[in-house]
């Protein structure tokens, strides 16, 4: 069951990336991110009361997740604003490789033959995607690529931390308690950042423009996170496989970039995505 939840999370996450791109085009990053955290907090607000505060020990762990995720988001939003969606989605898909290494060395996870085949094929696809990005002029020296790499590293750390937070074998914190409280903490952090960093300098930066795509960032993200964390809360869930399947969201964002945003070199990137799709099938078969 956990693998089915992971696939559902991937579809919603692809929509989330697409709405981010629409919202951030020629727009201020900090206000968009602030609204995202506020809408997410509103969506999860009923669970703030139903799950309760718990103890300070638990809240400190959740606060740590908030700081990691928000840092990843800030770097990722900046990268998304300046890079093509097909590049961001593809390069961001390298995150499961880092999660895989962490899952093996930290949590001692073991994969079966089909799962290993899926992971290795995905790594090949991700390497080709990086190559396509470099061909379009977004190589390692590009500063927006550096923001994207930072977002990937922090995102991988967050994925491993989620396993520690919610798995019954470790802390076993209720997933809805994590989702609701970490959304609130992120909103508070972003209000402070906007008040002290963006607002005083707003006249010298890109102006903020309201777009109706902005609320859908939160709607799709909350749905994706709900399914993702529900998957991780199951005892037999493998964080490496869940993270890999979740990165299948690139298929959705790639389609948006190709057919709606009309980005370039689509045919060459299609082979990379075909390999990624085959790897997802192998992971599905190995997880049944």
Chain-wise SSE layout:
Layout: H1 2-24, H2 29-50, H3 56-82, H4 85-92, H5 95-106, H6 113-135, H7 143-166, H8 175-198, H9 214-232, H10 239-246, H11 250-259, H12 266-287
Helix pairs in contact: 1-9, 1-10, 1-11, 2-8, 2-9, 3-7, 3-8, 4-11, 5-7, 5-10, 6-12
Q: Supply the number of helical segments.
A: 12
The H/E string reads HHHHHHHHHHHH
Radius of gyration: 18 Å
Share in helix: over 70%
User: Percent of residues in beta strands?
Assistant: under 5%
Distance between the termini: 8 Å
Number of strands: 0
**Average pLDDT metric:** 85
Structural class, from secondary structure content?
mainly alpha
Low-confidence segments: none
Return the domain count: 1
Concise synopsis of the structure shown:
The chain is mostly helical and 288 residues long. Helix content is 77%, strand content 0%.
What descriptive keywords fit this protein?
12 helices, mainly alpha, 288 residues, single chain
């Amino acid at each position: 069951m956990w693998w089915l939840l992971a696939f559902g999370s991937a579809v919603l996450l692809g929509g989330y990336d697409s709405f981010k791109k629409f919202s951030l085009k020629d727009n201020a990053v900090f206000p968009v991110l602030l609204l995202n955290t506020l809408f997410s907090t509103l969506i999860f607000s009923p669970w703030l009361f139903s799950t309760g505060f718990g103890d300070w020990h638990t809240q400190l762990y959740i606060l740590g997740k908030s700081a990691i995720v928000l840092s990843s988001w800030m770097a990722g939003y900046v990268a998304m604003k300046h890079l093509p969606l097909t590049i961001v989605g593809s390069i961001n898909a390298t995150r499961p490789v880092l999660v895989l290494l962490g899952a093996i060395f930290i949590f001692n996870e073991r994969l079966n033959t089909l799962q290993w085949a899926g992971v290795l094929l995905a790594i090949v696809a991700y390497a080709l995607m990086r190559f396509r990005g470099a061909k379009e002029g977004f190589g390692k020296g590009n500063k927006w690529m550096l923001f994207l790499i930072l977002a990937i590293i922090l995102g991988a750390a967050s994925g491993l931390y989620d396993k520690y937070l919610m798995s019954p074998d470790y802390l076993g914190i209720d997933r809805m308690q994590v989702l609701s409280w970490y959304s609130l903490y992120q909103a508070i952090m972003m209000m402070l950042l906007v008040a002290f960093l963006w607002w005083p300098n707003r006249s010298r930066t890109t102006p903020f423009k309201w777009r109706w795509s902005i609320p859908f960032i939160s709607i799709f993200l909350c749905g994706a996170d709900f399914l993702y964390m529900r998957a991780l809360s199951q005892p037999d869930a493998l964080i490496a496989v869940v993270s890999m399947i979740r990165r299948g969201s690139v298929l959705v964002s790639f389609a948006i970039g190709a057919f709606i945003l009309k980005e370039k070199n689509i045919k060459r990137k299609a082979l990379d995505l075909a390999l990624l799709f085959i790897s997802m099938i192998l992971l599905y078969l190995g997880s049944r």
